[in-house]
Design a protein that fits this description.
The chain is an alpha+beta fold. 49% of the residues lie in helices and 16% in strands. The longest helix is centred in the N-terminal third of the chain and has 25 residues.
Length: 134
Amino acid sequence: MVILLLIYLFIEQILSINQIYCMKNLLFTFVFILTATVISFAQNTSKIKVAGNCGMCKKNIETAAKAAGAMTAAWDKATKVLTVAFDANATSTDKIETAIANAGYDTEHQTASAEAYGKLDECCQYDRKKKKKS
């Protein structure tokens, strides 16, 4: 960034006012594109299998994911898959899955407690699969 500033100052002294205006716009555009690129690298997208039944489940699952730091969350009732986008510096799939389990829904890596599951509305109480003991 310092190098860009030095280049800018050098060019400002050499070029005429019209050229400086064009260079300022070009420099601003370059900095904007660079910033947008850096920000986009920190964003992750993940798919998480989440048990659920209905539209209310969809709302609860997506709300829990967003509360855990997901920028976007979309649960598909037919496939039982939640697609989330999140900033890897702010949260993780583990934190998102934990929040969903705390809301009463089993995920592929987290199991909701019996208490959390019991608080779900009757329509949301999906058939729980028993985990095999090794």
